[in-house]
Structure formats: C-alpha cells, structure tokens
Automatic annotation (TrEMBL):
It holds the Pfam family PTHB1_hp. It comes from the Eukaryota. It comes from Loa loa. This is Protein PTHB1. InterPro entries: PHTB1_N_dom (IPR028073), PTHB1 (IPR026511), PTHB1_hp_dom (IPR055363), PTHB1_pf_dom (IPR055362), VWF_dom (IPR001007), VWF_type-D (IPR001846). Residues 1002-1069 form the VWFC domain. One of its GO terms (biological process) is cilium assembly. GO terms for cellular component: BBSome; membrane.
Amino acid sequence: MSVFHVHEWLALEVIDGNVCAVGELIEKRDQIVVGSITGRIWIVDPGRTSETKQQLLSCLLEEDLSVAILDIAIGNFISGLEQNLIAVLSPQKLIIYRLISDGEVYQLNTIYEHTITAAAYNMCIGTFGRATAAQICVQDMTCSLMVFEAEHQLFHRPVNLVAALHPGPIIYTSHSDSIITASSSAILISYRYSVLATASSGKSGKKIAANWTFNLGDYPLDLEVINTTLVQPSILILCKRTLFCLTHGGNIRFTYRLQCVATSLLVYDSTHDAYVKLCIATATRMLLFFKDTILVWAAQLLHDTIQVRLCSFSSVYRSMLVILSNSRISVSYLGTEPSLFRLPAPQTRFIDFQLRYKEFLELEGLIRKKPLESVEGVPSENSLSLNYSYDGFDFKSVRLSPRAEKSSVEIPSLTLNIELLSEIRLLDLKLICSAAFHIEHKYASFPAIDSSQKMSTGVYVLSQPVYDLRCKLYAFSSQFGDVTGKELKMPLNLMCHTVNTQRNAQYKVTIESSLAALDLTQLFPEFEAETSTAIGFQPYLSETVISIYASQKYKRYRIQAESLDFIYLFADELITRIQAKQPEAKINCTLPLDQILHEINVYVEYEKRKTEEEKELERFCILLRHVQATILTKLKGERPTEVDHMNTLLNYAYQQILCYVDRLEQLNETLRSANLSLSAALNLMHLITSLKGNPLPLDGTIVNNSGQSVWERIKWAISTFKPIDLNTELSSNDLRYLMQSVCEGNCGTMAYIHEDSREEEDDEPQQSEPIVDPLISGIPCTNEGAKINLADVTRGLVTSPCYHCICMNSVITCVLEKCESLKNCPTVWDRNNNTCCMKCLDCIHMGIKRNNNQIWTSAQDICTQISCKAGVITSWRIQCLTNCSNGRLLAGFCCGLCLTPIKVQDQCVRCDLVLNQWYHCYRFTCPVLNCPISQHTKHPKRCCPECKSHSVISESSNLTVSNGSHCFFRGWRYIVHDTFRIDPCSRCSCQPGGIVCRRKENPCKKTEINGSETIVEHGTRWTLDNNCSNCICANGYIKCKKMNCPWEGKCPQGRHFKKVNGSCCHECELKEGSCTIFGDPHYLTFDKFGYSFQGMCSYILTQECSLNGIDPQFKIIGVNGGRSSLTWTKRVIIAISLFNGSFFTMHLLPKKVIRERTKIISIPYVRYSDWPEYRAFEDPTTGNIVVSFKLIGLKVIWDGKSFVEIVLTKRHQSKVCGLCGNFNGDPSDDLMSRSTSSSSHSVSHFAQSWAYNIACTQRQYVNIVRFT
C-alpha cells in the first residue's frame, strides 16, 4: 500500500455547504455545483483558467435561492436540448434550472418547478423505463417515491420501508431498470420501475411488491452501481463500518469490514480490468482506495469529508477529486501527478549563498518600490472607491419600536446615501453595512456597475439599544479582488435623548484634561443641556441614564451610569468632541480594570455553562435515539413484548431534551446580552489605553466572528505582547495578573499608589528571640556558600525547619527564623513539615499580592482606599476632614491640604504630612474582619476592632477564604460571584482571589434625653419610645421615621386582631388562606403567586402532603376540559379520606350540580350523622356554591362554570402541596413538583407532575403571569 498526501489545486469557501454535483454545463468540461442548507448555491468552473493567480475567477455564480438545498443533480432532463440542466431539491420543491450567460455574467433561469406534498429527503436520476431523457425520482420523509419528467409528474407511490424512522440513500440501476433504496432500519430494497409505474396509489388496485430485499445489519450511508463491461454488474452499499457488493439480483459478491467510521463513497474507472475500484472517505480524515477488497492507497486529508466526486477539466487536467468539507470545497490530486507537479532538476553547481542573499535583498527593495506586474485585463491598482452622506432626521416617518410603545418614545430614523465608484466595469459587486443600528439594506448585491452605483438605506434603533456609533462599509468585487471600505460615525442624537442627570451611579470614569473644561452646551450643541456643567442622556429602548459632569476648576469631566455598557460610547464621543474643540489638550483617563475583568469573568462563566448544557443535551438525544431503536426492535419481533417501561424512559428523555433546549435558548439570550456588555467593556479598555499612547490589542471585535471561546481569544491577544504558553489553563486570577502587568507596562505608572502599612502600636512587649541550640554551633564544612541540611549533618538530631544554615568561613552558620506576630490576624496558615511559622493569609488584588494589614490607594480613584485583612479585601471612600478655609487641592490627593493638622480626640482621624508642610487629613474606615461579631474586641487606644483569636487552617483544608470555586466567611459558604451584606454599610462578594467588600460609613452625633451628645457609628439603630419612632445613623445623618406597622386599621379577611403588650403596633394573626382558579385557567396560590397553565388533564389542586405512604386527609382535584387552545376547569372533585384506604368523594359539576358519590343532593344540605361532616349552601351575595368541612378546616367555593376557590385554615400551613402551592407564606417556592423537594424552573414540568393521571401526556400550553 502506498501513502500519499492530497495536494490541493483549487479551494473555495462555501459557507454551510452540504451537497455537491459534478457535470458538464458549459464548454465541454466539468463544472461543480455546491448547495448549502441555508439556500446558497455556487457554480464553480475550475478549468476556466490554468493560472493560479486567477483561480478566484473560477466561481461563475453565487446566488441565494432562499430555500434549503437538500440535493443537487446535473443531467439532460429535456429531450432535444443539448445543454445539461441543474435539478435542485428543497424540502417542498423540485426546481430545474438552466445556466445562461450574456458573455460575462452568469445567471440561473428557472425552467420547471414542481411542488412536493410531503417534506423531501433526497433524489436520484436515471432513464427510467428506457426513456430518452433523464428523469428524477424524489424520496420524501414518508418513504414515498415521486417520478418527474420535464414539466410532468408521472406518479406518486407510497412504499413500505419496514418500520424505518426515516428513509436512506437511493439510486437507479439501468441494468435491471430498478430503483434501489435503503432506510434507517438497515434494509436494502429493490423495486422494478415497471412495478412502480403500474401500481395503484390508493387502497385498491395493484400493490407494490419488492423485487428483492437484503438485511444490511448496519446503518447505510451511500449507494453506487457499476454497469461496465469488464466487471460483473454490481451494487455497492457503504455502511458506517461495512462495505457490501451485491449482484443486481441481491446476492453477495463480497463484503469488507472497515476499521473506522466511513462518510462517503466514490466508484471510479473500471474499464481497464475486472476489479471494482472505489474510494472511501472516513471520519479519521483519510481517503482509502480499494481494488475489490484490497487496500492499495491511503491518502491523508486536512478536513472532515462530506462528499467525494470525480471530475475532469481538459486533456491536461485529467481526473481529479472534488472533496466537499464543512464550509469548504477543494479540487485535489494525489501523489506526484506528472501533469501538474514536476520535481525540479537537481542542482549540480555550487551555490554562493551570500550572493544569493544579496539578490534577495535587491528583489525585496524592488518589490517595495513597485507593485507586481498585473495580469492581462486586470488593473494594477484598486479601481473601486466608496463615498457616503446622510440626510437629516426623517421626523415625518418616525418609527415606534414595540419596546417603546408603553412610554410612547419616538425613535428617529436617518437616511444613509452610499455611492460606489469604479474606473472600469466591475462584475458581481457586493456591499456590506455593519453597525449596531438597524440598517434596512445591510447587504446589497449588484451584477455589474460601469462607473457609479447609488443606493439609500434607512438607519434607526430597533429591538435593542445601541452601544456603538461606528458603522463600517465594505464593498468588494470577485472579478479582480478589488476591496474598499470606510468607517463612519452615526450622529449621537440618533440613539439617545436628553433627560435629567442622576448623581448616584455605580460606574464612574473620570477624564482629565490639561486645559480648562469646556461648557457642555458647547460640546453637545444639538442637545438641550440641564446646565453648562451637567447633561444627562438616555439611550432609546433603555432605562439607563448616562450623566456627564464638567469641572472647570479641576479640569476634568466625569461620566457615570448604573451600567458599564454605555460608558465607552459616551467616553469616545466626549473625547472626540474635546479634541475637536481643543486640539492641543492632553487627555488622560482612569481605567476601570476591575469592572472590565468582572465582565470577562461573567461572560466566560456563561460560555462554560453553555458547553455543559450542550453536552447534557447531546447525551439525552443519544439516549432518546437508543430508546427509540430498542422499542422498534421489540415491536418488530414475531411476538411483540411489553414496552411500557421503555415508554416511560422515552418520555423522560423527551422531557429532558425539551428542558435543556429551553435552558439553552435562555442561556443564548443571556449570552447575547453579555456579548454586548463585554464588547463595550473591551472597547472602553482599548480607548483608554490608546489615550496613553500604547493601545492594547483588545477590543470588542474579539467577542464576535470566531468559533473559539472568549477566554482563548483573550489569551491569544495577550500572548502577542507578553510571552505565555497558550496550552496552559489560566485561572481568573492569572488573567487578572496578566492584565494588570500589561496595563502597568503599557500605560505607564499608576498615579499616586500610596502604600500605607501603618498600624497602631502594640502595647504588649515583643517576645525575645530564642537562643540558637549550641548543638549546631562550630561544626566545620567545606562547600563554601552552600545551604546546609541540618538533619543530614546531625544525623536526625535537629530536624526543625526553623534553622536556616549555610557554610560560611568553613563553619556552619545558622540563623533562627523569627515568626511574625499573629495578634491582628483573623485567619492563619498552619505550619507543616517544611515551614517553621504559622503565617497570616495574604490577598491577591488585581493580580498583585498584598500582605496582611496593608493599606493602599486605588489606581483608578485617588479617593478610594483599599486594605487587606487576612484574605479579605475592603475598599472605602475617603472621608475628608478639612479645618482651613484656604486649603489647597493638589493632583494626587483626594482631600484639601492644610498647613495645620486637625486635633480631635478621635482615634480614627489621621493627618498625613505630605510635601514637608501640608497635612492631608481624613477619617479612617475600618476593614471587614473574618470572624463573628461576638468575637470582635476593640482596644481603647485604637480605631478599629480586631478578632479575639485567630482560626488556623491547613493547606489541605476546604475552609480556606477562597479556593477558586467558593469562599468561607464567618462560618458561611458562598459560591464565586455571590454577593451578600454583612451590615448596612458593607457589601461583600466572593471572588476567585478572596472576599472583596465595599464599606461606606460616617458617624453621627446622638442627643440623649438629658441633653448630652454621644458619637454613634454609621448603621446604629435606636428607638424613641416617647413617639414610637425608629432612628438610624446613615452616613453622618440621623434619620427617624414613625414605625410602619404592618397592619393599619382593621385586619384583612383571613386574619384576626391580636394586641401585643409593650409594642406600638398590633398584629393581625393569620386565620385562613385561599387559592383561586379561574379563566383559561389562571392559578393564584395560597401565597399569592400567579401563573397560567392550559392543560387537558385532571390535576391535584391541593392535598395534605402525605408522609411514609399514608393517604392524605383530603384531596381537591380539578378536571380541565375544552380545546387545545382554550381550556378551563369543568368540574371539581373533593376526596376526603375514610382512613381505611378509601375516600369519600363529592363532585361539583357544571350548572352548580353537586353529586355525593352516586346521588345528586339539593342545597342547602347538611351532613352530620357520619364522617365527614359538611355543609353545602349557596352564598346569597355571590351566588356561588360553598361546601364547608369545618372539622377539617376546608372550604371549597364553585360558581358552576370555571371559578374555584379553596380556603384552608391556619393549621394547614406548610402541610399542603399541589398546583395551589405549599401555603408557607413564601411565593418563591410554590412551584414544588411532586417528585422533587426543590422548586422547579419550568411551570410546564411542575404542573404535569401534579397530573392526577400520570399517564396523561397531552401537550401543554404554558404561560407565566404574576398577579398582584
């Protein structure tokens, strides 16, 4: 066996290409027709040119047919017409095309069009019944065969394919005039054409009988026939792992077992000998060439193969392979084909490499000065250009978006005018407009342009807000490869309008300028600004408000919003307008790296979840197919076995598939939203680093148009300017460190990073250093400067890791490691065999290691301080204290500077001496401690409390502050990215690097009853008993409010009054709760959670939750009826347990009829002689029927049509279940399914689990509605 590589001669991109055909269409040589599932068709003529530079011209036509293409065939379908035609099969149509041209432009002309009644599957062509012209046989999904000749449909015959899930490959053999088809049931069937033509399509008449059948035992993939003279006429069947060769009578000639999964079959020249020559493509990217069962060649491919065909273009370019792969088609040859590839003559002379190197340098210089000589007929320069302009806003045809109709916001539109210019006539010109706006004509195609071509398109906001004003225009021609493009910015007022500013916002970006800040009315003249220093914008279809402030005094601008999504757009627009007004201004901006990294982490987590969900979906799909195959196998036996248990598994797999499909759809929608947010964040990072003169190669374009994950793309981008191994797995901490180091390297030093490790002095004396053991002193050594292992020297007498010894002056000299104090450390690492001391946990902030008790200033905001406390990072806003009227505000300092410090009796006030004469005074904020509040202790001379003791953890412990997936804080476990509050002033989140907290607090002066004042900390609460008021210290302000009693006035229905001694408010104790079912139908649970569910079964509305198999005391069952699109509750069944395994039943029927077991009762009615006792009557105020079981605490109200109300007393709280919920006061867990103890995410899954008859599998129509 010889091994050759496949050498590509021509390759073209065919997006989503799935089928191809080879045949003569023009000029007596083969052309290739490729179709895609998206409806796009390509016609390629590889023999059109022999020049490699002009192979782009080989694509004669590329057209969108707007229907999915299932199969393509080329043949002479019309008698008397010399030119071959193209047959294209789509799910509902069979269309015959003719390729025509006017000399330069090729087009498809529709000749005939046939409608397929059922969904088509595939087709074959042949001269059925010895016809003169080729005919087409189409096979549909119902296993029916339809034969077409020119404009006529000859017949339509249903055939039996032995209980197949779907049909398989089909082919016609002229030797026996038969149509051979295989199906998913692995059965090969041959039908004579004469039998098909004379059979009846109806129930009466001549039936269709198979000529012969053959059981393959493997899944069929492809069929081929051989009708040459030297080889016995044969039928070749390629299955997944087996190749069959049969005679035309259905007898085996030979079989061959493959070692890997096959994908495609090709039979080629068998005219020279009596061997069957064939080529098989495999899933391992190999081409296997056989003579009968002898493997003679094996060729390696670079892509997965879908189809393999044989083609010939001229006498020079002989037989070549057409290989269709995913989104790619290539024309290739094998080995060393002499017509295309010749080895160069061997060099026998001496080569002077230095002289050759000089020649190469001269050639490179010529290439740089002068472009390559153009080929004949091709211009040497790009002759295509593009111009654009746009008209004003079209307020006459203002468009209202569906999302904006509630607020009646008018959205303007803009007309964009585009003009394409060319110096020569260009063919097949395409124009692409890419923008975040909705563009009416995003793609345009022109068959040819002579000098210019104009078009206009509308641009406006539609369906979602706009995060980027840029619009990119690209135009290209496939004739000469001319490409041109331009980028423009849309007007700002096309995507937003002005609103009032908002002072408080989560995200803030400060832009500093070297010149005085401009008035915002000058920067945004097309808008009406609130003031000259403040303006607010609101994008269309968004509730986010972007506020811009200008400070002329401090020469800075600030952009702030509740979302990071729009910061980039307005920062870019503001910077552009400032530079236009002040070209000499130097602009700088802080980089919100933490927020950008957070957006990256969120998107990466969504991507990982999507991958996991897709794997689970694939697993259940495989399970469903296996179950279906097993059921069919059992049902095909002579004695069919029971398949009820298989039906249960089938229903389970089907429900899981639906569940995962729904979750994937929701996840894809979330990813689309996160995609926009991440793209805006990366664009912002690119913009800010560009201002510093060294932009990072990261922007929003890496999020789109790639099959890689965002994590891989960011890794690759970082590797372009920082050497890293792309094959290693990077954690979020690694990425943070890389980004931090890159930003520091590219953006220069961070402004004013103040390292403040100062802590209050400890009053306790330090312990003296222990004396070195005299056993290890004075021992001689020879290896000067080497480290000494004392365990080896002392023969195991000294093994402590606390001794660090080296050989110095030929004597072993040791130093005893001194352990740091752990007094102010809440969490420490335990010592092990290799360490001497217990060490306090440190922190990782933005990739930088920080020590315990270290305090520093944020790189993004000089007014934010950050501290590290044993793995917990706390940040806070500096509280400035200024006692001078002439204080100076200098760059790099948050507070005003004074010449004298503030002198107060407050341990938390600090005044730092800066610049040798100024004092920077502020109030210190205490970091968050990782120990319970009961363990906090405060020294009278210190500002902040500390933990009474420290907890010791080992490196193998799971109780670390953060291990990358979860965090432990004060005894509680949190998942990464969980957010929680530890007090009203502090908000914390679990991050891969540890706990990150944000504090905001100011003290208050509290006036006591005797008139004295005391200082209370932020968040302190107290009650004024004289007027029933609650007070709280909120950032320096005392806020008092009258107590809001939950129950004012009379108690509502279902509750009764209860007086509480010593309290300002009374209580309304719960007496009963109600569940309501009404309408189509809608459900309002006992806990007032509302949803809608249209089902056609009987459902348990509520019942006493049974334990250990004991029958519930009562059940209320709703029986639904109606049509598939409209259902309602037709009747209600009340079942009361008799405690002997049976139930007492009552039926509430339409028209207010009540049936007790088998008898109809008249109301009013009272049953008191036997269990259960109840009373039935008509409510005179509403006219509804009321059935009351007082001893049980149950009441059912029925209007005789569709309204049901179930009332339970308080004693049933948290003891019931069903469609009415669990009656525990929490509406969030009302969707508790019967089989699980957790709340379901799917209303459909929840409601179906409470079907009274589990076997009821009617299709459910689900809609969730929350009622108030």
